[in-house]
Specification:
The protein is an all-alpha fold and 253 residues long. The protein has 2 domains: 96 residues, no CATH class; 149 residues, no CATH class. It has 9 helices and no strands. The two termini are 19 Å apart.
């Protein structure tokens, strides 16, 4: 069956990209507010430096940041480049999501990669992986597994339990014999989410890739004396990067 012209072509791709920019703008709110325990809905957007409300014309994704030169209109404080970066990445994600996949897989791409993007940033900036993202995200992974052509509910559940279980066991053993936490419970919940969307083998591949990225990142810093062996690292960020890479490769076209 030929694709419906209304859901293909450059105009549809542009509409998806613009929708992604808008979702990325909301993700920026989530990244900033959830770790602080604030509502992501109220109050409206405001400058982080002077608390001035953001005008509608200054709240357009990417465009407003460029027009204002990356600064607040009122106090001229810098607006982090993370804001347009997250918006553009989410726009590209929305544009790519429908490629070569069934509707359930396209929705899974949007949901998982949006969650991983938000979680990678919260862990990088605050060393926090908020439960309101990981736990409902894992439930969504299980719910979407049934309709997907590349996954089923049993495989999704096995991935969630195996991934989270192994990481929880590692955490318990490290705490028992070394007296320190190798990973936090937030990382365990994140792997619950990852396993639900990827299944067992890809979830383990994501952990292996995250560990390799950690060695590559921390090794030079240890040698240079910039960090110590007990310095906490944002392993959730590495897990999100590893899972995103594995998911894109395994479901890409």
């Amino acid at each position: 069956m030929a694709p419906d012209p209304a859901f293909s072509g450059p105009l549809f791709a542009l509409a998806l990209f613009v929708a992604g920019l808008a979702v990325g703008s909301f993700l920026n709110v989530v990244i900033h507010r959830l770790p602080a325990g604030e509502s992501v809905l109220l109050p409206g957007s405001r400058c982080l430096a002077c608390a001035a409300p953001i005008r509608v014309r200054d709240n357009l994704p990417v465009i407003s940041w460029l027009r204002l030169g990356g600064r607040c209109r009122d106090c001229r404080a810098r607006i982090p480049v993370r804001y347009p970066l997250v918006e553009v990445l989410t726009g590209v994600l929305f544009w790519w999501a429908p490629e070569g996949g069934d509707p359930a897989l396209a929705v899974s791409r949007v949901v998982l990669l949006s969650l991983l993007l938000a979680l990678a940033m919260t862990d990088w900036e605050r060393m926090v992986l908020p439960d309101p993202l990981t736990l409902p995200g894992a439930a969504l992974g299980l719910a979407l597994a049934g309709p997907r052509s590349d996954l089923d509910l049993l495989t999704s559940a096995a991935g969630a339990l195996l991934g989270a279980g192994l990481l929880f066991l590692l955490r318990a053993l490290w705490l028992r014999f070394r007296g320190v936490e190798a990973v936090g419970l937030g990382d365990v919940k994140l792997l619950l989410l990852i396993g639900a969307f990827l299944g067992p083998a890809p979830a383990l591949a994501a952990v292996a890739l995250a560990a390799a990225l950690g060695v590559l990142a921390a090794g030079p810093l240890l040698l240079l004396g910039r960090i110590r062996r007990d310095t906490p690292l944002p392993f959730g960020t590495l897990l999100a990067l590893g899972a995103g890479a594995v998911f894109v490769v395994s479901t890409g076209v």
